Amino acid sequence: MEVDQFIKGFRSGLGFLTTLPVGWDEKGFDVFFSHIYFFVLIGTVIGIILGVLGLVFQWLIPAPLIPVLLIAAIYLLTGINHLDGLSDFGDGFIASGTKEKKLAAMKDVHAGAGGILFIGMDLLFLYAAIAMFAGMGGSYLLAGLIVAEICAKVCQTTAAAFGKSLQAGMGKALMDKTKKDHYMIGLIIAIAICIVVAGFAALPGFRPLYALIGFLAVSVSAAIGFFLADLAERNFGGVNGDVLGAANEIGRIAALIVMGILIWKLW
Fold first, then answer.
1. Which of 223, 40, 244 is nearest to 149 (CA)?
2. Burial 198-229 (b: 16+ CB within 10 A, else e)
3. What is the pTM of this model?
4. Which residue of 90, 155, 161, 252 could cross-link 118, Cys pair, CB 3.0 to 4.6 Å?
């Protein structure tokens, strides 16, 4: 890929996956969707921004406020589209009946009990996980947030690469353009970055066991992506944008919990 194309694709992806006013154009958006590894690269940028904010909060404010402000920062930076997808996914999953009825519940614009439950659990787990990292220290919080955002994109892109496309929309547009080799490039990049970042969580030294934990976090998020793709096919007939949004949120939580608990046991 030429440098100019890469820049256009990256900028368009950053504009799509965040609220940053970087702008995007149609050609750049096509490059972004056609090279799914951009998701991992942009997830890394999001994680770095949030991690740096976490360090600043550690220095400036009392510990109980850090998770609240970081959760607010996550959704101010990334928007609430993925959270809305999790809500819709929850409504469809909880609904009883045929695939058609579940799909109709997922597409209903009003949040139901399932959506409220899924959002509530997401925020509770997110608060607890961030508090766990904040309690271990600034470098752990930085590493945890970077790995979590990368793993969120790994889970999302896994569902996109291996799920059955359900219907027209952004989800189908992404899945139709997704290539398995591009997915593997993104997965390799994610593993490499997470191993390094997790390995240096206990600055200044590198800990091989922590690096292994970074690898496990990516592995779990990928496995959950496969699971969600299969779950979506059995419940709705396939994967759509709401399922991909839910995968992002669930992948983030899973990475934070896996990495946090294992590091806490070794800390």
1. 40
2. bbbbbeeeeeeebbebbbbbbbbbbebbeebb
3. 0.94
4. 90
